[in-house]
Amino acid sequence: MIVAERKPIAEIMEMVGPRKKMLVVGCGACVTVCMAGGEREAEILATTLELAFRNEGKQFLWDCVERQCETEFVEPLRDKVRASAGVLSMGCGVGVQTLAAVFPESAVFPALNTHFMGRPVEQGLWAETCAGCGTCILSKTGGICPIARCSKSLLNGPCGGSVNGRCEVDPEHIECAWQLIYDRLEAWDALDLMDEIMPPKDWSTSAHGGVRRVFREDVVL
Amino acid sequence: MASEFSIVAFCCEHSGALAAGTAFADAGIPDNVKIVSVPCSGSVQTIDILKALHSGAAGVVIFGCHDGACKHLSGNQRAKKRVAYAAGILEEIGWERERVGFSTIASVEGKVFSDLLAQMTHGLRSLAPEGSEGV
Fold first, then answer.
1. Which domains can be identified in chain A, with CATH numbers?
2. Rounded distance, CA B115 to CA B112, Å?
């Protein structure tokens, strides 16, 4: 899922500025699961902002769509968006930009900071697991991504900073991804993969070749 | 929720609500207190706390069971965390954390219940009237 966190209220209040009536829009997908911007959080933010601006009589309505990243799902908000002086999106950065694209005449602001693609590893803790590099090598690394989970994104690890399975960058919080990969490959009886030298990665599929696109002619009518 | 109630007390029906019954059996519930009985303190959401304040309450308190006595095992711990989260939100908008509170209590502790409410009422009187209807 895409993992995000609510921005500080002070920063959101600054975005509200002089607007008297705004619409807070939650998203029912990833940010609901990571408890940052779902229906519950949208109502909390709208209520909080009404408390914060109580003496100025500002109004904050709220709604939540199933997926804020798709035009079809945000389109039904049109009337509510038109009736507001601006929109506070509680979706990820994709959701914010979808709202802004569908309603170009309205000011749309992000109420969340979008962090990464990851998963919940324990209660209340989410960790990055995929960097979206565009050339997946998980088949060679025991299903553990060294690009996202090794602090140095090493393709041939571990480095000398791996001590007792922990990473020198932050031993308390970060596991050595290459130790995890070794342990997993050992469990798979596939340690021979550790001897395989991975060549330099083709980063043109990552964030180095301009805006990335995926096109499938077969789904176009 | 009526705005004339200056303190909203969400009370677990297994502990706080019974303690409230004992505390106010003779004199009745004080005018400034609204008792809301809930199945478990853990059923009170952050939004419930904020909505109570939005409706004009000066303060909100949740009474849950003592540790180890929660019928739903960890409802009281959830309530405590939600109060802390709500307090953080209030602090972010410049309101006092003291406007929200959590306390564990047993059904037989009527005196403790009324003392805690009196203490909270006293504390709220010393705060600026953030949209409150007065205590």
1. 2-116 (3.40.50.1860), 134-207 (no CATH)
2. 5
